[in-house]
Amino acid sequence: MEEIDLNRPDLYINRELSLLAFHRRVLAQAKDTSKPLLERLRFLCIASSNLDEFYEVRVAGLKEQVQFGSVQSGADNLSPQEILNRISVAAHDFVDEQYRLLNNEIIPSLEKENIYFLKRDQWNDAQNGWIRDFFNNELLPILSPIGLDPAHPFPRILNKSLNFIVSLKGKDAFGRDINMAVVQAPRALPRLIEIPADIAQHPQDFVFLSSIIHAHVADLFPGMEVLGCYQFRLTRNSDLFVDEEEVDDLLRALEGELPGRRYGDSVRLEVADNCPEKIVNYLLKKFELGQKELFQVNGPVNLGRLIAIPDMLDRPELKYPSFTPGLPANVGRNLFSTIREGDILLHHPFQSFTPVIDFVRQAAADPQVLAIKQTLYRTGPDSVLVDALVDAAKAGKEVTVVVELRARFDEEANIRLANRLQEAGAHVVYGVVGFKTHAKIMMIIRREGKKLRRYVHLGTGNYHAKTARIYTDYGLFTCDEDIGEDVHKIFMQLTSLGRSAKMRKMLQAPFTLHSGMIERIAREAENATQGKPAHIIVKVNALTEEAIIRALYRASIAGVKIELIVRGICCLRPGVAGISENIHVRSVVGRFLEHTRCFYFHNNGNPEVFCASADWMDRNLLKRVEECFPIENPVLKARVIEQGLKLYLADNTQAWVLDSEGSYNWLKPVEGETPISAQQTLLLSLAEKS
Asked: What kind of architecture, by CATH, is found in domain 10-318?
């Protein structure tokens, strides 16, 4: 039998184009009229913010490759320039769809609910007067219009800030001819301002900050004629570069790099669609961009800032129903005694994150607790969990925290919390040079009688109380001795930088997780070859790692049934005859961001189930410190299989199925079929109230 070439480029979907396809699935939620109106608006804003980050990081990286003459291609064999060309076409279509949706569907629907964004020609006399006062009192004192001449060159434009290019006629106070000026909107001010109720035309009237500046921009240039005023926004490369091998203090090096993020290389220009071509070309030249990086939009240049609206409005009928996260029946007041009785598995956001916080709070107050060790990747600026760690350190506990300073876009917050923890007396380390610490692990060491017992929390998501309300994640509490020993070894690696020690039950990146997954995939393939039942179910956020993909292809060829639930990027191409026809891929996109990473291997009737902090990506498996932990309790194992995996495979309302052409198709119930939403089912079964 001729060996199949599993390196063929047509077997791999491009990573960046797959990520754009995910953003389009998010945008599709905003088009779904069955969703509450303000949630549709929220999805529109999330899709816009996703595209921002895509340009700041992914497109910026590709442009750098082109700039340095790189022709390196991935498994799909596309060059960086070819990928950029395809991204440009897809992204322009994406943005056009965003604004069509905003202008033709969302805004008219909001108006039917008496929520209006008033344009300048809709302001009545009372509103004009109030807006004039707002401009004079709130804007005029802090605006700094910059006329462009040899003494006033084009100003540095902050990344993603709102700006206006103003066309002028006449002479300034010094008799100079000024044809052009730039006005930069203050970042501290909201982009939407609510009109006071006593002068509003409707129950809720808003005006855009950009409309106020447009209306009164002439006041910034007395004695001159304003010929035109056009909003624009520049997106810049926001990746940070720190040569970790050359710096002695990573924290100080990152502190020095952070300000530069605001002024990285230009990657995208958004400008009002009524801006004259001459001015557009002027801006493109200034920012060294071409037509492919230009987006001319019919509306506010930053849709992401509209996400403030749902929180500004007390309209519960236009939002998802609120709910109270539940708690497992076996969670008692004293977590240590509860964990000794048996493992606890929390499924956020359907179940509460509070026990995780209480775990540290109880440890801080417990005289029997000697030490607390924890990793922190993202926690948020005002973290109650960090508050608890500070209290523990002040109470005299031995507190060791591994803070990942390089968590993208959270670097500044993590530097602040690291300093705060150190001031409280905690030991703070910054992980390992060259390997981000992405593991979500916590260990509390407690004296019980004549011995020490380790209590452990392991998670698939960050220790972040806010995202625990909107991301789906698993968290396991256990005092299993083998897992406690494994977690102890991981902390020893992170703090002492000693050699990797053999794990008893857990898998760990960058050492055993990659090979451990490939071995288990190969075992299923061998079982299938021998005529035994073989089945793999995987739920991850992304699948890009080529060796894993090839292993899955080999398993499929051997006859293994493979079901993949991949929320975002998937570079594997399912349904290819003779290669991946036994592989099925779906993505579930709904109210909550799917974030759990779970792995099921049939193992000839003795199933193995793991949860992990890691996706099946090159960076997670080979370039990060990650944890992967077994679910061994039979009841909890069955819960993960039934609720965390099979329920998502049964979803026929929020699932998108990936076909062999690389396209996603939204799955809908056929006539007579019961609609199933995995997230809604979990809400009803696990939350206290929905």
From this structure: 2-Layer Sandwich (3.30)
